[in-house]
Structure of DNA damage-inducible protein 1:
Amino acid sequence: MKITVMTADEQIVTLDVDRDESVENLKALLEVETQVPLQQQQLLYNGREMRNSDKLSALGVADGDLVMMVSGAASSGSRAGAPGIELGFNQDGSAVNPSAFQQQLRNDSNVMAQLFQSDPELAQVILGNDLNKLQDLLRVRHRQRSELRRQQEEELALLYADPFDVEAQKKIEAAIRQKGIDENWAAALEYNPEAFARVVMLYVDMEVNGVPLKAFVDSGAQSTIISKSCAERCGLLRLLDTRYKGIAHGVGQSEILGRIHVAPIKIGSIFYPCSFLVLDAPNMEFLFGLDMLRKHQCIIDLKENVLRVGGGEVAVPFLAEKDIPTQFLDEERHAKEASSSGTQATSATKEHISTPGGPSGSTGKSTFQGPEFEAKVAKLVELGFGREQVIQALKFFDGNEEQAAGFLFGG
């Protein structure tokens, strides 16, 4: 195991020693490293003096622990109030003099570098100004070491347990299983540390009906979804077809208020037609689902960290965590619940279509009439589009000729 020894003159020595090594032999190694004679060394662990005859394991010294070394002169002076003993530790693991301990570590760049690698939390607290927080963390580390030693002692006791004792064998089995888990965890920390980091979901910048949005890209959601509030902000709520009401089931469930059959979305510099379900989901704004990902031949390129649309004609970058609104990061779970409409949402919408004649069975008289409307139709027909197609596009965009043209060219 490796232990760190801090000398009175702020020298740091890292030694690789055996757990059952004697304190006297440890002092001999330190004499070679520090040139301080063995007889003048006084070693302190957790604020208590380490006697020459003691074994490191008997004192509870574990891998990575810190031992303080003061010379004989310093030790005698410390009894009179010199700082030697003040750099030691109390029984609970806290520093005897936290301010002196903090300053001692701050002044040694090598120790701070080691701490930032092995225990960054402790390193940050040492650089801070809260001594109470430092003491609390030192106590926590002491308890952790004590718990580790207790577990090691229990494992050692199990080695000598009665092989015919059923309870002892259960404990041995549990200890072996836990050891495998701990080794797997340690291997993951070393070879796959990114697995413990937070995974930020995929968001891109889009415009829906001219309104900029942060769109959540989710290939696990069957349908593209927009919230009622977002649809209202984008000026699309007037196009809501309530005949497609239903319930979206999944991890949770949300009410499907209806469907908007087509509206323009702008990805990069190109417009694409899009349809989506409108959900009563206040915790989710806009979700770009598998239906539109397939329709527009999208590619989620994680190597280049971009979303490619139209088979690659447009590539927009996924947003970095700093560019995603905080509420989105906190509410991704709600978005996933809302996105889980899946096949259940499809069947629900079919079950709740109640208007005779289907979506085209409206009996109301159209308001899109007159010479002005016909002029718009004729102008768009001249561009090569069918009359019925032009009329539908103009109706969807409330007679807005430019938006209808952009939609027709995008389709």
User: Anything to note?
Assistant: Residues 131-159 form the longest helix (29 residues). Residues 73-85, 334-366 have pLDDT under 50 and may be disordered. The CA atoms of residues 227 and 282 lie 7 Å apart. The two ends are 68 Å apart (CA to CA).
